[in-house]
């Protein structure tokens, strides 16, 4: 029994009728002292409908053993899991709901500490948002990436090669039969995407934030060392309760600085920006888009992984993992940032080493000298927009072209392969109605497929502009997260086909070359307005009425901030 006042004692201590009820219904064969120990909830996002997280129940079992070994009581708690590939209209619509459900259940139950099990894209962000708001001791165990599959002797990047192979089918260079055959090779094992997509990015960024035991993020899902780490994390959770080590002590401005440096150095997903902003908002930390540009845009990309590079997550793990990457940029990190162990992150870098300099480049020979996510502003995105320079075509980072506008993803799909479409390689594809309010939910549609007739001509990239998101596994010269979105009255709603758009990434500009007086006369087209119909009921209605814009994290306005862990009233 630890010498610490446990939150769970508010339920279990004493001889009152209510304490009797709480203990009796939970006892079910447990020893009498089970209620005197730290109660550690294992928040498990496993589900058969979240394929990347299905193995987390095995991970939870290892955590359970660690909690027991350290003298705690483990309590597995299923929480809302979101499968990126399965949920319609987009998993992002439900991220805030998952975070709200988790926060309320963490607060409402007799829980002293949390072990958070996540993998697929939205699960780690929603777990961290919830943990930040309830502020109970919490530590993350990332589920890990899948092993590398191969097709026709070539490694397959999960997600990235879906986009590449599907474009080859549309271009006529790969048969539909071969494309289908690649399906069973794409997902070789348990685990999340093996590219530097959002799942991999958020696992590594969570470690850079200090919320994962250093050295664990990126461990492949089938690797037995993940279960060893899960056991150790269960033990750590009990220690964290005894030490009172809460998210508010770990997640600081210094932590977010380190997360942004890590995001840039690994060539991570643009989706991490909106998630980090949302987590910071739960903590009251003043983090904005300009911080990502100021801290991260000049950081070299050191990790040669798809979609920006060649290798996959299994390679990153054997090459030294995140700690080896961070050692190369140690001078850019804030040394005051702590981790869940109570020690500074930088203390774990001394013994880190690069074991394969092809996968993890040394600082002296980066993959991209300045490849961080660039934040753009201009009259087309007064609230900001993003572009992932490392995944873009260098010749398109400064570009001027005629807009070809699509009012919805359905409009885009219906017209993009029309042989009579007035489009050329210099055109700028504009897709709107895909922001938080407009879709609703801000889907991953910004990396629009290229027109079939241009693919046949050998074109493989074009400038694309959208108020939605892009899969972290995707690539191309895509300007996304345009804020304000069209549905919120942003200038994107006023763009017309034929208008000239100018992109200059070095100058951090995205502008519409239309006179101010002309824009003042314009109103959104009828098709655009129709695409922004307000949902009638349910979560979608609540979401659209309260969701914030991408530049602040797309959280709900009433969820920003925290409520702590106190519950003032009894249940009986």
Quick structural summary:
The protein has 572 residues and is of the alpha/beta class.
Shape: globular
Overall number of strands:
14
**Largest sheet geometry:** 8 strands, mixed
SSE class: alpha/beta
Rounded average pLDDT: 94
Task: Summarize the topology.
Elements: H1 9-12, H2 17-27, E1 39-44, H3 56-69, E2 73-78, H4 92-108, E3 113-118, H5 123-134, E4 138-142, E5 149-151, E6 154-156, H6 160-171, H7 176-181, H8 183-186, H9 198-209, H10 224-243, H11 247-250, H12 253-265, H13 271-283, H14 289-296, H15 313-319, H16 321-328, E7 373-376, E8 384-388, E9 398-406, H17 409-415, E10 428-431, H18 452-456, E11 463-466, E12 478-483, E13 500-504, E14 509-512, H19 516-521, H20 526-530, H21 538-546
Parallel strand pairs: 1-2, 1-3, 3-4, 9-10, 10-11, 11-12
Antiparallel strand pairs: 5-6, 7-8, 8-12, 9-13, 13-14
What does this structure look like?
It is a single chain. This protein has 21 helices and 14 strands. The protein is α/β, with parallel strands linked by helices. It has 3 domains: about 300 residues; about 35 residues, no CATH class; about 160 residues, Glucose Oxidase, domain 1 (3-Layer(bba) Sandwich). The strands form 3 sheets. An 8-stranded mixed β-sheet has the order 7-8-12-11-10-9-13-14. A 4-stranded parallel β-sheet has the order 2-1-3-4, sandwiched between helices. Helix 9 runs antiparallel to helix 12 and helix 12 crosses helix 14. About 55% of the residues are buried.
């Amino acid at each position: 029994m630890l010498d610490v006042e446990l939150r769970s004692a508010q339920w279990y201590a004493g001889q009152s009728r209510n304490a009797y009820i709480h203990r009796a219904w939970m006892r079910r064969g447990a020893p009498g002292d089970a209620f005197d120990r730290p109660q550690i909830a294992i928040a498990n996002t496993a589900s058969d409908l979240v394929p990347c997280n299905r193995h987390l129940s095995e991970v939870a079992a290892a955590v359970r053993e660690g909690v027991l070994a350290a003298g705690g009581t483990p309590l597995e708690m299923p929480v809302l899991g979101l499968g990126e590939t399965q949920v319609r209209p987009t998993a992002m619509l439900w991220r805030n709901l998952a975070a709200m459900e988790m926060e309320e259940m963490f607060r409402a139950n007799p829980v002293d500490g949390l072990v958070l099990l996540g993998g697929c894209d939205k699960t780690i962000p929603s777990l961290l948002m919830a943990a930040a708001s309830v502020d109970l001791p919490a530590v993350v165990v990332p589920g890990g990436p899948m092993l590398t599959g191969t097709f026709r002797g070539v490694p397959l990047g999960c997600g990235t090669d879906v986009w590449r192979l599907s474009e080859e089918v549309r271009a006529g260079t790969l048969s539909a039969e071969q494309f289908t055959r690649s399906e069973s090779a794409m997902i070789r094992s348990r685990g999340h995407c093996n590219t530097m997509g959002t799942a991999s990015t958020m696992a590594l960024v969570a470690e850079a934030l200090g919320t994962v035991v250093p050295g664990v993020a990126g461990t492949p899902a089938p690797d037995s060392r993940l279960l060893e780490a899960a056991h150790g994390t269960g033990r750590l959770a009990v220690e964290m309760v005894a030490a009172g080590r809460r998210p508010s002590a770990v997640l600081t401005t210094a932590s977010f600085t380190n997360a942004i440096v890590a995001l840039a150095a690994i060539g991570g997903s643009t989706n991490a920006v909106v998630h980090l902003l949302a987590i910071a908002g739960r903590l009251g930390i003043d983090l904005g888009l300009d911080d990502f540009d100021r801290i991260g845009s000049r950081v070299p990309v050191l990790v040669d992984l798809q979609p920006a590079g060649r290798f996959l997550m299994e390679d990153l793990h054997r090459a030294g993992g995140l700690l080896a990457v961070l050692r190369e940029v140690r001078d850019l990190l804030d040394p005051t940032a702590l981790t869940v162990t109570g020690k500074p992150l930088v203390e774990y870098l001394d013994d880190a080493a690069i074991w394969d300099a092809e996968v993890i480049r040394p600082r002296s020979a980066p993959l991209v000298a300045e490849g961080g996510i660039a934040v753009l502003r201009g009259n087309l995105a007064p609230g900001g927009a993003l572009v992932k320079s490392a995944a873009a075509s260098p010749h398109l980072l400064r570009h001027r072209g005629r807009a070809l506008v699509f009012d919805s993803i359905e409009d885009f799909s219906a017209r993009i392969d029309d042989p009579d479409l007035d489009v050329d390689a210099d055109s700028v594809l504009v897709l709107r109605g895909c922001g938080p309010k407009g879709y609703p939910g801000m889907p991953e549609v910004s990396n629009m497929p290229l027109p079939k007739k241009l693919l046949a001509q050998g074109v493989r990239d074009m400038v694309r502009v959208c108020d939605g998101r892009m899969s972290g596994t995707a690539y191309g010269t895509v300007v996304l997260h345009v804020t304000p979105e069209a549905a919120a009255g942003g200038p994107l709603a006023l763009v017309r086909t034929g208008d000239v758009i100018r992109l200059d990434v070095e100058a951090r500009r995205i502008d519409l070359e239309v006179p101010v007086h002309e824009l003042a006369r314009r109103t959104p087209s009828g098709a655009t307005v129709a695409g922004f119909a307000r949902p009638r009921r349910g979560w979608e209605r609540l979401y659209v009425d309260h969701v914030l814009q991408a530049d602040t994290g797309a959280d709900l306005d009433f969820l920003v901030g925290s409520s702590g862990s106190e519950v003032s009233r009894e249940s009986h």
